Every structure is written in C-alpha cells, then in structure tokens.
Amino acid sequence: MTDGNQALKKAGLKITLPRVKILELMQGPENQHISAEDLYKKLLDLGEEIGLATVYRVLNQFDDAGIVSRHHFESGKAVFELSTQHHHDHLVCLSCGKVIEFSDEVIERRQDEIAMKHNIKLTNHSLYLYGTCTNDTCEHNDA
Fold this sequence. Notes:
- Helix content is about 40%, strand content about 15%.
- The chain has helices at about 5-10, 15-25, 35-45, 50-65, 105-115; strands at about 70, 80, 90-95, 100, 130.
- A 3-stranded mixed beta sheet has the order 4-3-5, with no helix packed on it. Strands 1-2 form a two-stranded antiparallel sheet.
- A hairpin with a 5-residue loop joins strand 3 (about 90-95) and strand 4.
- Helix 3 (about 35-45) crosses helix 4 (about 50-65).
- The longest helix has 14 residues, at about 50-65.
C-alpha cells in the first residue's frame, strides 16, 4: 500500500481513483500552493477524466481530513498544499503570485511571547507576508 493510500485510510476516506490521482499530483514539489482549477488542468494534461467538481469535492474532503491545508492568499482564490509536520509561514509576491515557504525561530518565539503577554494560549496560527519580487525571476517585475 502506498503512502497516499495509507493517508486516505488513516483519514477514514475510501481509496478511489480520483482521490489517489489528486493526492499523487499534490505530492510533487511543483504542485504546492495549487488551485483546484490548476490541479484540474494538470489532470487533463495527464489524460485523467476527473471533473472539476470532483476535484473541488476531493480537495474539500482532504481539507476536512487534515491531508491538505487551504490558504486564501491575496489572489482571491484558494490554493492547497499538503499538510506537513513542520510549521512554516509564507511570503507571497503580489505581482506574480509566487509563494515562498519559510521558517524563522525568532518570529515563532516572538509570536508566543505576544500571545502569553495577552493571556492567549496559541492553538495554531498562520503568517502571510505580502510584497513584490525585487529580482529578475518575477515575470511581472517592473524594475
């Protein structure tokens, strides 16, 4: 049994072809922070006949089961990434939409200190930092 199948079983989800195919695609590093529409296009490119409504339904099931995390960056559309064991935050380019994951112990420690100062016990958090690329790799860079 593959890791994907085990993840589905552990989440209490039946192993179906659409779920397996979507999970396999999402395991590729280039498919993190991907929208349902982009995932659907990739499935079509691979010759998979899985409808857009099914992709949305599966992603919602995965989100409910904790297999993926849904993010709502400034673009207005939801993007998904596989849930990971390590916490990370995100830098988002407002021009090209590029998402960079990062971890910083100083930021994490400071957030905990601020929460304690205000008598809040953190259960989870997300940090999104928005800006624009300042290097030549941004396809929308005006520099």
